[in-house]
Write a structure and sequence with these properties.
The protein is α+β, with helices and mostly antiparallel strands. Among the domains are: 73 residues, Immunoglobulin-like; 70 residues, Immunoglobulin-like, CATH 2.60.40. The protein is built from 3 helices and 14 strands. Strands 3-2-5-6 form a 4-stranded antiparallel sheet. The chain is globular and about 55 Å long.
Protein backbone atom coordinates (compact mmCIF):
# COMPACT_ATOMS: atom_id res chain seq x y z
CA UNK A 1 0.00 0.00 0.00
CA UNK A 2 1.45 3.31 -1.05
CA UNK A 3 1.14 6.32 1.25
CA UNK A 4 0.17 9.61 -0.38
CA UNK A 5 0.95 12.84 1.55
CA UNK A 6 -2.03 15.15 2.15
CA UNK A 7 -2.47 17.98 -0.28
CA UNK A 8 -2.99 21.50 1.15
CA UNK A 9 -4.66 24.12 -1.01
CA UNK A 10 -4.40 27.82 -0.23
CA UNK A 11 -7.13 30.05 -1.56
CA UNK A 12 -6.00 33.61 -2.37
CA UNK A 13 -8.78 36.17 -2.40
CA UNK A 14 -8.69 38.71 -5.19
CA UNK A 15 -10.75 41.67 -6.30
CA UNK A 16 -14.09 42.46 -4.59
CA UNK A 17 -13.91 39.46 -2.24
CA UNK A 18 -10.58 40.61 -0.82
CA UNK A 19 -11.78 44.19 -0.45
CA UNK A 20 -14.92 42.93 1.29
CA UNK A 21 -12.81 40.89 3.70
CA UNK A 22 -10.56 43.87 4.46
CA UNK A 23 -13.60 46.09 4.93
CA UNK A 24 -15.12 43.69 7.44
CA UNK A 25 -11.80 43.46 9.27
CA UNK A 26 -11.44 47.27 9.43
CA UNK A 27 -14.99 47.64 10.74
CA UNK A 28 -14.33 45.02 13.39
CA UNK A 29 -11.10 46.70 14.53
CA UNK A 30 -12.83 50.09 14.62
CA UNK A 31 -15.62 48.61 16.74
CA UNK A 32 -13.09 47.11 19.15
CA UNK A 33 -11.27 50.48 19.41
CA UNK A 34 -14.46 52.46 20.00
CA UNK A 35 -15.73 49.93 22.52
CA UNK A 36 -12.39 50.03 24.38
CA UNK A 37 -12.34 53.87 24.34
CA UNK A 38 -15.92 54.03 25.62
CA UNK A 39 -15.08 51.51 28.34
CA UNK A 40 -12.03 53.53 29.39
CA UNK A 41 -14.05 56.78 29.49
CA UNK A 42 -16.75 55.11 31.55
CA UNK A 43 -14.10 53.71 33.87
CA UNK A 44 -12.44 57.14 34.22
CA UNK A 45 -15.78 58.74 35.13
CA UNK A 46 -16.10 56.26 37.99
CA UNK A 47 -12.49 56.33 39.19
CA UNK A 48 -11.70 60.04 38.72
CA UNK A 49 -13.29 63.02 40.43
CA UNK A 50 -14.37 66.10 38.46
CA UNK A 51 -13.68 69.75 39.34
CA UNK A 52 -15.83 72.67 38.20
CA UNK A 53 -14.98 76.34 38.76
CA UNK A 54 -17.60 78.95 39.64
CA UNK A 55 -16.17 82.47 39.02
CA UNK A 56 -17.88 85.54 40.52
CA UNK A 57 -16.65 88.31 38.16
CA UNK A 58 -14.92 88.66 34.79
CA UNK A 59 -11.63 89.03 36.67
CA UNK A 60 -12.19 85.61 38.21
CA UNK A 61 -13.12 84.09 34.83
CA UNK A 62 -9.69 85.02 33.44
CA UNK A 63 -7.76 83.80 36.48
CA UNK A 64 -5.10 81.18 35.75
CA UNK A 65 -5.47 77.81 37.48
CA UNK A 66 -2.67 75.68 38.93
CA UNK A 67 -3.27 72.16 40.20
CA UNK A 68 -0.58 70.78 42.48
CA UNK A 69 1.80 73.43 41.17
CA UNK A 70 1.14 72.82 37.46
CA UNK A 71 -0.59 75.35 35.21
CA UNK A 72 -3.63 73.80 33.48
CA UNK A 73 -5.41 76.80 31.90
CA UNK A 74 -7.71 79.67 32.88
CA UNK A 75 -11.16 79.44 34.47
CA UNK A 76 -13.33 80.35 31.46
CA UNK A 77 -11.49 77.88 29.24
CA UNK A 78 -11.64 75.04 31.77
CA UNK A 79 -15.40 75.57 32.20
CA UNK A 80 -16.06 75.13 28.48
CA UNK A 81 -18.68 72.50 27.67
CA UNK A 82 -16.23 70.23 25.85
CA UNK A 83 -13.64 70.21 28.64
CA UNK A 84 -13.52 68.37 31.95
CA UNK A 85 -11.02 68.69 34.78
CA UNK A 86 -10.61 65.13 36.05
CA UNK A 87 -8.35 64.33 39.01
CA UNK A 88 -7.29 61.17 40.75
CA UNK A 89 -8.88 60.62 44.18
CA UNK A 90 -6.98 62.17 47.07
CA UNK A 91 -5.81 65.59 48.22
CA UNK A 92 -5.01 68.29 45.67
CA UNK A 93 -4.04 71.95 45.94
CA UNK A 94 -5.88 74.31 43.61
CA UNK A 95 -4.47 77.83 43.10
CA UNK A 96 -5.95 80.72 41.09
CA UNK A 97 -3.73 83.66 40.05
CA UNK A 98 -4.45 87.01 38.43
CA UNK A 99 -2.26 90.09 37.97
CA UNK A 100 -2.89 92.70 40.69
CA UNK A 101 -4.72 90.22 42.93
CA UNK A 102 -3.71 87.96 45.79
CA UNK A 103 -3.50 84.26 45.03
CA UNK A 104 -6.62 82.23 45.79
CA UNK A 105 -5.81 78.76 47.07
CA UNK A 106 -7.72 75.78 48.37
CA UNK A 107 -6.80 72.23 49.38
CA UNK A 108 -9.51 69.80 48.36
CA UNK A 109 -10.23 66.11 48.78
CA UNK A 110 -11.27 64.51 45.51
CA UNK A 111 -13.48 61.43 45.71
CA UNK A 112 -14.15 58.90 42.93
CA UNK A 113 -17.02 59.76 40.59
CA UNK A 114 -17.97 62.95 42.41
CA UNK A 115 -18.25 66.52 41.11
CA UNK A 116 -16.78 69.27 43.28
CA UNK A 117 -17.51 72.96 42.57
CA UNK A 118 -15.00 75.62 43.63
CA UNK A 119 -16.15 79.24 44.00
CA UNK A 120 -13.36 81.53 42.74
CA UNK A 121 -13.23 85.08 44.10
CA UNK A 122 -10.01 87.06 43.65
CA UNK A 123 -9.17 89.86 46.11
CA UNK A 124 -7.19 92.95 45.02
CA UNK A 125 -3.58 92.99 46.11
CA UNK A 126 -3.22 95.46 49.04
CA UNK A 127 -1.28 98.60 48.10
CA UNK A 128 -0.93 97.59 44.44
CA UNK A 129 -0.44 100.64 42.23
CA UNK A 130 0.12 101.03 38.52
CA UNK A 131 3.37 102.78 37.53
CA UNK A 132 2.96 106.47 36.70
CA UNK A 133 4.78 106.00 33.39
CA UNK A 134 3.80 102.94 31.39
CA UNK A 135 4.68 101.24 28.14
CA UNK A 136 2.28 99.14 26.10
CA UNK A 137 3.50 95.62 25.41
CA UNK A 138 1.32 93.45 23.18
CA UNK A 139 1.89 89.71 23.56
CA UNK A 140 0.47 87.65 20.72
CA UNK A 141 0.99 83.94 21.27
CA UNK A 142 -0.45 80.73 19.91
CA UNK A 143 -1.94 78.78 21.61
CA UNK A 144 -3.68 81.72 23.27
CA UNK A 145 -4.33 79.73 26.47
CA UNK A 146 -0.63 79.83 27.39
CA UNK A 147 0.36 81.46 30.69
CA UNK A 148 2.40 84.68 30.52
CA UNK A 149 4.89 85.70 33.22
CA UNK A 150 6.72 89.03 33.55
CA UNK A 151 9.77 89.05 35.83
CA UNK A 152 8.58 85.79 37.35
CA UNK A 153 5.03 86.98 38.17
CA UNK A 154 1.94 85.64 36.39
CA UNK A 155 0.17 88.43 34.47
CA UNK A 156 -2.52 86.51 32.57
CA UNK A 157 -3.09 84.14 29.68
CA UNK A 158 -1.96 85.16 26.20
CA UNK A 159 -5.52 85.55 24.95
CA UNK A 160 -6.09 88.60 27.15
CA UNK A 161 -2.73 90.24 26.40
CA UNK A 162 -2.64 90.33 22.60
CA UNK A 163 -4.72 90.69 19.48
CA UNK A 164 -6.29 93.92 18.26
CA UNK A 165 -7.74 95.18 21.53
CA UNK A 166 -5.47 93.96 24.32
CA UNK A 167 -2.04 94.87 25.64
CA UNK A 168 -0.02 94.84 28.84
CA UNK A 169 1.02 98.02 30.66
CA UNK A 170 4.50 97.86 32.14
CA UNK A 171 7.01 100.27 33.61
CA UNK A 172 9.81 101.29 31.21
CA UNK A 173 13.03 99.36 31.47
CA UNK A 174 14.20 95.77 31.23
CA UNK A 175 11.78 92.88 31.78
CA UNK A 176 11.96 89.12 31.41
CA UNK A 177 9.01 87.58 29.55
CA UNK A 178 8.17 83.90 29.84
CA UNK A 179 5.32 82.04 28.13
CA UNK A 180 4.56 78.45 29.09
CA UNK A 181 1.95 75.78 28.48
CA UNK A 182 2.01 72.06 29.29
CA UNK A 183 2.93 70.04 26.21
CA UNK A 184 4.83 72.94 24.59
CA UNK A 185 8.34 74.33 24.78
CA UNK A 186 8.64 77.35 27.08
CA UNK A 187 9.33 80.66 25.34
CA UNK A 188 11.53 83.25 27.10
CA UNK A 189 12.71 86.67 26.01
CA UNK A 190 14.25 89.80 27.54
CA UNK A 191 12.91 93.19 26.49
CA UNK A 192 14.05 96.75 27.15
CA UNK A 193 10.97 98.95 26.98
CA UNK A 194 11.26 102.64 26.10
CA UNK A 195 8.74 105.24 27.38
CA UNK A 196 6.02 106.34 24.93
CA UNK A 197 6.73 103.42 22.65
CA UNK A 198 4.50 100.46 21.80
CA UNK A 199 6.15 97.05 21.62
CA UNK A 200 4.98 93.58 20.63
CA UNK A 201 6.11 90.02 21.19
CA UNK A 202 4.69 87.60 18.67
CA UNK A 203 5.42 83.89 18.69
CA UNK A 204 3.96 80.43 18.28
CA UNK A 205 4.91 77.85 20.88
CA UNK A 206 6.53 74.67 19.59
CA UNK A 207 5.24 71.28 20.60
CA UNK A 208 7.43 69.62 23.21
CA UNK A 209 8.87 66.23 22.20
CA UNK A 210 6.94 63.30 23.62
CA UNK A 211 8.66 60.34 25.20
Amino acid sequence: MRFSPPIFRATITHGPQRRSFMSRTARFLLFVFLFSAAALLAQDSKIMGEIHFDPVTSIDRDAGIWIDGNYVGYVKELNHHDKKVLLLPGKHTITARQAGYTDWSSEILVEPGQLKTLHIKMDPLPGAQDPQVTVQLKITVQPSRAAVFVDGAYVGHAGELGGSFHSLLLAPGKHHIKVSLPGYRTFENDVDLVPNQKSEIKTELLKAPTE
